[in-house]
Amino acid sequence: MPSPLPPSVSRLDFLPHVTAQTAPAPQHITVSRWRRYRPDQQWEAYLFLLPSFIGFLIFVAIPVVASLALSFYDWNLLSPPEFVGFENYSQLLTKDRVFRKVLFNTFYFIVTIVPLQLAFGLLLAVALNQGLRGLEIYRLIYFMPVVTTIVAAALVFQWFFNRDFGILAAAIWEFGATTGLPIQPPDWLNDPDWAKPAVVILTLWKNSGFTMVIYLAALQGVPAELYDAAKVDGASSWQRFRFVTFPMVSPTTFFLMVIQMIGAFQLFSEAFVMTQGGPAQATLTIVYYIYQMAFEFQRMGRGAAVAWVLFIFIFIFTLVQTRLQRRWVHYETGGES
Amino acid sequence: MTTTTPATIRPETAPGATFKTGRLALHAALILGSVAMLLPFAWMLATSLKSPPQIFTYPPSLVPDPVVWRNYLDTVQAMPFGRFYLNSLFVAVSVTTLQILTSSLAAFAFARLRFRGREVLFLVYLATLMIPFHVTMIPNFILIRFLRWFDTFYALIVPTAFSVFAVFLLRQYFRGIPAELDEAARMDGASSFRIWGQVIMPLSGPVLAALTIFVFLGSWNDFLWPLVVSNSNATRTIPVGLATFRGQYNTDWHLLMAGSVIALLPVLLVYVFAQKRFVEGITLSGMGGR
User: Could you tell me if B152 and A308 are in contact, meaning their C-beta atoms sit under 8 angstroms apart?
Assistant: First the structure.
């Protein structure tokens, strides 16, 4: 990955004690100053930390605890909060039909978006890495959706998917008419079966440029000797991809998989703007459900409980992926992770 | 001799030819992909310049005829996009400035000063990097209401003026700057504050540039939090303003697309001219930023 840090930083940083202790100590004073806390820097350090720490405490640390506490209460902001124990959670997991749908939708998005995104990104990166002319222009175009405001993008796609006057539907109608095949455009955003793929397409369009750029940087780090050696051994271009490129970029694949999975778990704006969670809750996601619970139904406790379920899911999935990575991720010894 | 010359020529020419056709095929595929990438933009621009009857004709066209520039005037008159720009700009500039200021000060302390509790505090910071924003969103909303900050710029700026990720990123970078430099400055009698401002910060140009773009663009495009805490055109940022516009002009696609063009134009323009910096900035999100 294109680390914005110079290589020396990431290397040195993980060994702070080693660097500190192996640093030459010409005088006794230097050593003691280096190893002990400096009393004169004590209060100074707190002053430097103060602005950040106050913000951290008020807007991150305390809200985390408050959110957990809140998830055990029933509170609509008007009447006093009522302690309900685990009821918010048990309702969600056993009785709430909509939440079951929400979970299903979210998993649908994860298992479609993550692999497709990685495949697209890698494909594009491999294509762009062939030393073609116009790399800069291709990258400019493919990365463009990444910088666009998701609200505008979702709005355009809503119109793009319009069955009667949208350009995508028109292309499909025309294709069916010219080839004589019985092909009709689906009613993307009004059909529960097609609304999800519409969200997937929007997400792929929006984010493939991101995975492409990260993969491109990883590909540029693969030593050319490996390809030369593979060629000498008579490997076909597919074999060179399968046995050289793929293992060499596997740390990047793992990293992108985790990032994209967390992103897919947190899908919100796409569905909020393009489909409003519908039709028939087909595109309602976990974050959308948090939003609905808290800010449409004023059920703060239930909303907080959904947020914690989200966190637990992300935590478990990341943990599982981290465990599984040993089986397929190839790390070069001494290489950057 | 006659048998050896073709043998040496054939392998020379044959791969060359497949190489060329392969290249052309690759270009063709990439251009097709580029068209797919650009089509939504073209569709948005075309629609924004069409008259309503043109919009609802079949087959749809990518060329508006006649070109209706008035749509933009109508859009700006229907919704105060100028105001949204100002709001977005004010919020994004404030958030970026404050976040870099608070984070670089804290990162300096974590990277360069020796104080009791440093490692523990840093671990506490790091631990919260994993927690998604959505977990803290509801308590933050309640806090904003309690402070009577709802629908004010305070609500949009203050909670995002701090960033654990930025502290982490800057600390890593600062640690890579040779310690001899600030030791020397300290010998010359410079205070820690001066070392931060005149040694460390000037040496951190690349990471600060990337972080600036990352934070600015994140703030400019942020949707969920502004959606939750702003409730009037006086505080709505571009994305929230556009969403509100959609709510009111549900089927006026010419106006909605004009609004989208207005929303996207400044960012896309800057992006085209500073592509490299943008890519660098955004790939930071891969390092754990939102």
Answer: no
Question: Which CATH code is given to the segment(s) A90-328?
Answer: 1.10.3720.10
pTM for the full model?
Answer: 0.85
* B278/A86 Cα distance (integer angstroms): 45
Task: Compute the nearest-CA separation of A259 from chain B (Å).
Answer: 7
Report how many Cβ contacts below 8 Å link chain A to chain B: 299
Domain boundaries, chain A: 18-70, 90-328
Q: Does A261 touch chain B (CB under 8 A)?
A: no
Burial B31-61 (b: 16+ CB within 10 A, else e): eebbeebebbbebbbbbbbbeeebbeeeebe
Distances (CA, A) of A337 to A254, A255, A326, A331, A332: 10, 9, 13, 7, 8
Give me the domains of chain B, ranges plus CATH numbers: 4-71 (no CATH), 80-287 (1.10.3720.10)
pLDDT tens-digit profile, chain B (290 residues): 343 334 333 444 445 566 678 888 889 999 999 999 999 999 999 999 988 888 887 778 888 888 889 899 988 888 999 999 999 999 999 999 999 999 999 999 999 988 888 889 999 998 888 888 999 999 999 999 999 999 999 999 999 999 999 999 999 899 989 988 888 998 888 888 999 999 999 999 888 988 998 899 999 999 999 999 999 999 999 999 999 998 888 878 999 999 999 999 988 998 888 888 888 877 776 554 44
Q: Does A52 touch chain B (CB under 8 A)?
A: yes
